[in-house]
Design brief:
The complex is a heterodimer of chains A (about 230) and B (about 300).
Chain A lengths: L1 H4 L7 E11 L5 E11 L3 E5 L6 H8 L7 E6 L2 E2 L8 H5 L2 E4 L11 H10 L5 H14 L15 H13 L5 E5 L7 H16 L3 E6 L2 H7 L2 E6 L2 E3 L1
Parallel strand pairs in A: 3-8, 3-9, 6-7, 7-8
Antiparallel strand pairs in A: 1-2, 1-4, 4-5, 9-10
Helix pairs in contact in A: 4-5, 4-6, 5-6, 6-7
Chain B lengths: L2 H18 L1 H36 L3 E5 L5 H12 L4 E7 L1 H12 L17 E6 L5 H13 L4 E5 L2 H43 L1 H9 L4 H39 L3 H5 L7 H27 L4
Antiparallel strand pairs in B: 1-3, 1-4, 2-3
Classes of the chains: A alpha/beta (about 230), B alpha+beta (about 300).
């Protein structure tokens, strides 16, 4: 079965890039010959200026882009050559928090979070139970009937996180999660990721803020002009 | 597919349909008009066949016989014909009777026939045919069967009328098939555009669906249902309009000349109604499918 063949096993070697290069149209090289491993349960900050290749790095993992050359493995599966029809099954096991949240503005907070379960055909009773649980974790149960535009930036960020963690994914990716937030809100958000990490989830946070990475510890990968430095 | 998922799809389709608002109604309106034009042609053909049948039903087959056939043989031949399945009556008219009839028809001028050296008219049989739905074909079949006999010189079943009507109907059929194809394409383009516009407004939503692991079919289904809905509603409305028009014509004709009252105006048969509905539903689905292609094509 397709789902089983792309089931991410929580194994030691979670993500591996091997000689990976990504060149966009017109020859823009976003990633250049990257080789690295991220082990199971690691908490990783991917640090670099904007345009350094952080977002492309993350997109490689959830097969939103394909390598120009080289390989990317997730749980030992060659994701760079994953057949299109299997991509949905891979993504169901990766929680993603986007820089711009990517919330559905016509749906309520509850529906936004439940969306991730509904698209994979979860039973309605289960959807309710798990959505409430996820909203509880991000402390937004009170606002479940609000629409995203009625929320602050930090609250919208938490809705996005609730949606990302609702499936209890083995991998959690986040692109600039604290971009526009003040120190206190940033702290709250990072704590959510740390909690997930404690449950065994591999977390990768892309940020331009080196200070943030230093403050919370964890592994730091520096990226500049599409290359890993140090 | 699970009932719950199906329910979700239908709900989504209805929401998107409503959200498209004026666009949905506009597209239904245009598709209704196209389908209405199409069904109007179908109504016309249906009734043209009716008129043709009416004309043919009033003719019978005339079988002209050779001269000097013994009476006994004619009686036997008459019997053979009257035993044929679709034949209702056979009347023998002899040369003499035919001439007498002709003279009667001439009235005052009947004298001109007095100087004929012999009677030029043939003996003939008038074969009347039972009414059926396939009058043309039956007439042709019977005539061909009779023509095989050695006693017969010629069979006249109104071939000329039948042939002309046949040609008209055939020509119309070709025109209708052509128009159907064009209107079908128009319907397809309209539905594909309307739903496509709706999809552009929801491009972000579709992208998010893909990112959280929705399969292409999960994204497609609500849009397909939406197209189906537009198609069926338009088809139903076109048939409804046609029905109203039909009723109007029937009422008008019933008060018109006696000549028109003889022509039985029929509504398009059930098969055509089903065909229109099915075709509109399918083109709705196909239109959606085509417009979705843009959003679902994989990245290189």
């Amino acid at each position: 079965m397709t789902y089983k063949s792309y089931k991410i096993i929580r194994e030691a070697k979670m993500i591996e890039f091997r000689y990976l290069t990504k060149t966009y149209d017109r020859g823009i090289r976003a990633l250049n010959n990257i080789t690295l491993k991220i082990e199971r349960g690691e908490f990783v900050f991917l640090v670099g200026l904007s345009g350094a290749g952080k977002t492309t790095f993350l997109r490689m993992i959830y097969a939103d882009e394909r390598p120009t050359s080289g390989f990317v493995y997730v749980s030992s599966k060659d994701v760079g050559n994953i057949p299109n029809r299997n991509i949905p099954y891979l993504r169901r096991q990766i929680g993603i928090v986007f820089q711009d949240f990517k919330l559905l503005y016509s749906k309520t907070v509850f529906e936004n979070v439940a969306f991730a379960l509904r698209v994979i055909g979860t039973k309605e009773a289960e959807v309710y139970k798990r959505t409430i649980k996820a909203l509880n974790i991000v402390e937004l149960t009170q606002k479940k009937s609000c629409f995203p535009h009625e929320l602050s930036g930090g609250e919208q960020q938490r809705v996005a996180i609730a949606r990302a963690i609702i499936n209890d994914p083995p991998i959690l990716l986040s692109d600039e999660p604290t971009g526009n937030l003040d120190a206190q809100l940033t702290n709250g958000i990072i704590n959510l990721f740390l909690n997930a990490n404690e449950q065994g989830t591999t977390v990768i946070i892309a940020t331009h803020d080196l200070e943030l990475a230093r403050r919370y510890g964890g592994r730091v990968i520096h990226i500049a002009n599409g290359e890993i430095i140090q | 597919m699970r009932f719950q998922t199906t329910k979700y799809f239908i709900k989504e389709a209805c929401i998107n349909f409503k959200r498209a608002g004026v666009m949905s109604y506009a597209s239904i309106g245009i598709i209704t008009v196209t389908l209405f034009v199409l069904s109007l042609f179908l109504l016309f053909t249906t009734n043209l066949k009716g008129v043709a049948d009416l004309l043919v039903k009033r003719t019978s087959v005339l079988v002209y016989l050779k001269d000097k056939i013994p009476q006994q043989q004619i009686i036997e031949f008459e019997k053979t014909i009257s035993e044929m399945e679709q034949v209702s009556e056979v009347v023998y008219i002899s040369k003499q009777d035919a001439l007498k009839k002709f003279k009667e028809n001439l009235g005052e001028n009947k004298d001109i026939l007095d100087n004929l050296p012999s009677n030029p008219l043939p003996n003939y049989l008038e074969v009347k045919v039972k009414r059926s739905n396939f009058v043309w074909d039956e007439l042709k079949k019977i005539s061909e069967e009779i023509e095989k006999s050695e006693l017969v010189t010629e069979v006249d079943y109104g071939q000329r009328v039948v042939n002309i009507l046949d040609k008209i109907t055939y020509g119309l059929m070709i025109i209708i098939v052509g128009i159907t194809i064009v209107l079908g394409l128009v319907t397809l383009i309209i539905i594909s555009n309307t739903i496509g516009l709706g999809l552009f407004a929801r491009e972000e939503e579709i992208a998010i669906m893909k990112l959280v692991g929705a399969t292409n079919w999960f994204i497609r289904c609500p849009a397909l249902i939406e197209g189906l809905l537009q198609g069926i509603i338009s088809g139903g409305m076109a048939i409804g309009l046609l029905w109203l028009l039909y009723k109007f014509i029937v009422v008008k004709l019933s008060t018109a000349d006696a000549l028109f009252q003889l022509i039985p105006i029929k509504f398009i048969p059930l098969e055509f109604i089903c065909g229109i509905l099915l075709a509109s539903a399918l083109s709705g689905c196909l239109g959606s499918f085509l417009s979705l292609h843009y959003f679902l094509k994989p990245k290189k």
